[in-house]
Structure formats: structure tokens, C-alpha cells
Amino acid sequence: MNGHLARRTEGFSESVIREMSRRSTVHGAINLAQGFPNFPAPPWIKAAAKQAIEDDVNQYAITWGALSLRTALARFYGERYGMEVDPETMLTVTCGSTEAMLATLLAIVDPGDEVIVLEPFYENYGPDAALCGATPVFVPMRGPEQRVDPDELRRAFTARTKAIIVNTPNNPTGRVFSRGELELIAALCIEHDAICVTDEIYEHILYDGTHVPMATLPGMAGRTVTISGASKTFSVTGWRVGWIVAPPMLTAGIRKVHDFATVGAPAPLQEAVASALGRGGAYFATLATEYRARRDILLPLLEAAGFRPNRPEGAYYVLCDIGGFGFADDTLFAHWLVSEVGVAGVPGSSFFSRPELGRHLIRFTFCKTDEVLHAAGERLAMTGDLARRRR
Ligand code: GLN
After folding, report:
1. Which of 14, 15, 17 most suits a substitution to test ligand 1, by most atoms within 8 Å of the C-beta?
2. Where are the domains of the chain?
3. pTM of the model
């Protein structure tokens, strides 16, 4: 029946991140593949969700988001970053930032438009670009520092460039883009009349530097689409509450796509997130401190086990070089690791346009309790021995 499938399903394959989660379950492994916390969400956000259901907030919210959540978000962006966000015309609440990215690209990109993607990139951006018929243009982040070469970036912008996707703090590299790097991207967007779509879902999970929202740079508020959500900030990845801040003209188009795609995000959970956003600075600081501690547990365990991890500045992933284990490629290694060592990671090739670019890499997440990280470390310590025996 393959002939019945539309061509738009052909440009991409199943998500490797989600596939590794499934393999992890099959093998009873420790899942350090898909980025979801194994610890509870804060009690106050759970209480607020229960209360909202009890209060009968059980029907559709306004399609672009409950007024309470849009008001809370406008206040949050104003107080934290000094951004002027009109809740009536500049905010769209979506089913997670996954829908946010797809709705945005569908709303702004015509088939054949070029969309610049910094590489490695979060897996979804490839299929997102394919679904809207965009021509992705990949620009590498290079070296141990994972920097973009300014000239290479400049050359990637053409008359056909519609948008650039920027993800900071970055999944999978852990990079936090500096103001200087963002200024270069901003200057190129302005010069080429392009839109910057920034995925800032890890905005509060930061170990070094500060988070600079692209929309706060001079001249960028009018051409930036800022995407974020509750998933990572409040450890509620299954709630599917994300959002988009964009200038009114863009928001109008994005809301149309969103409305007909999903109607809206879960209404009672929007109320809970609205109330949680009021917790403010102290909670966000604790979140970062706790993640730093988790990072500092997993990194030395990986190093001791013969993986060569990078040192993330933000987000909750670590990319490791697996060259020392003697495997032909990352997928073979990840499949072997989950079945024989009992730890799931994501093959590095999933984050690149061409598989060979990530052949020497695996990504682990550390959004897990100390106990699970230590247990994973114990298993991973056997990787070298088991790999040698296999040869
Ligand atoms: N962002 C998470 C990751 O990279 C998972 C997102 C998802 O699977 N929807 O693992």
C-alpha cells in the first residue's frame, strides 16, 4: 500500500529519539535517550492542575490560549527579559513546542524557501522543514567549542532564505549562544529580511553564561518567533503545553495553522502553567542548580567509562565521542549498548543531515534522579570490557 502515501512523508523517517525510548523499554534498560525527567513535577503545579479540573476547566480554551496563561506569559517575558508582549496579538499557546515549531514553519515558509539550520540540530527540525517543503541549508557548529564560522554562516544566507532556526540553550550540543553570536545572526537576518525562529525551551537550564532571547536584540522583535514551553521548565513533558511569541503579523498566520491543526492545548493544564509561571526567579534558579548537580554526576561517570563527553553549558544532554570502543558506527553502538550494557542513548547521526557526520557520537540525557544516574554509571563502566570481548 506504499503507493497510497503522500510524498511529504518520504523526506524523513521515524524519530530515532522516540525509537530508542521504545528499545529501552524492550530491553529493560536505563533510558538516557529521550529527554524527559523521571522525577515528579513540583507539587504546586500538580495541585493547580487538579484544582482546574475540579473547577470544571474541562472544555476548549480560546484556540490561541487561555487568557490567564497569555497574561501570565506576557508578564513573565516583560519582567524577566524586558520584552513587550501583547497577550492579545503576539502569543499562541500550542501543544508543546513541537507543535509550535511546525505551526510556525507552516505559517511562514513556502515550498522551495530556504531555511537555515545550525548543525547538529534537534531531530524534529529536519522533518519540520520537509513537511512544509522547505529546502534546509545546514551550517555546522564546529570543533570542541561548537562554534559557527561567521563566514560560513554569511554564505548560507541567500535571496531565498526565509528563516533560520536557532536553538539556545542547544540540544544536543549543550551550547549557550553568546550575545555576540546572536548579534551576527541578527545582523544577517536583518540584511536578508529573514525571520529568526528561536527554540528557547531550555531557557532556564543554564550552567554558564546567561540566556539572551533573540527577540531582545535591537531590530529583532519584529522578525523573531520565540518558542518555549512548560515541558522542561516544570518537568511536565507529557502535558503538551508550549507557546509562541511573535509579532502580530506573524502571529495571525501562526494562529490559523494552530487552530486547524489542534484547536488548542489542554485547557486545565494551561491554567496550571499560568499559576506556576508566577513562581518566578527563585524556582528557575533552583531548577538550574539541580540540573548542574545532575550534570556533574554523569560527566565523570562517562569519562571513567571511556566515553569522551563534552561539557554542556546548558540544556540537559551530553554528547560523547565513542571512538574508543571500536564500533563501525553510532547506530550499531547505541543498539548494542541498550541490549548488552542496558543503557539507552541516542545515536549521534540523528542530529545531522548526513549520518557520517555523527557516526562517532552518542547523546545521553541527565534529566534523571541521582540514583538512576549512578545506576547508569555502574552499567556504563562495563562498556569497554564488553566491547573488547565482542571483538
Ligand atoms: N526534546 C527531547 C529530546 O531531545 C524529547 C522531545 C520529544 O521526544 N518530543 O530527547
Report:
1. 17
2. 2-41+282-390, 61-278
3. 0.96
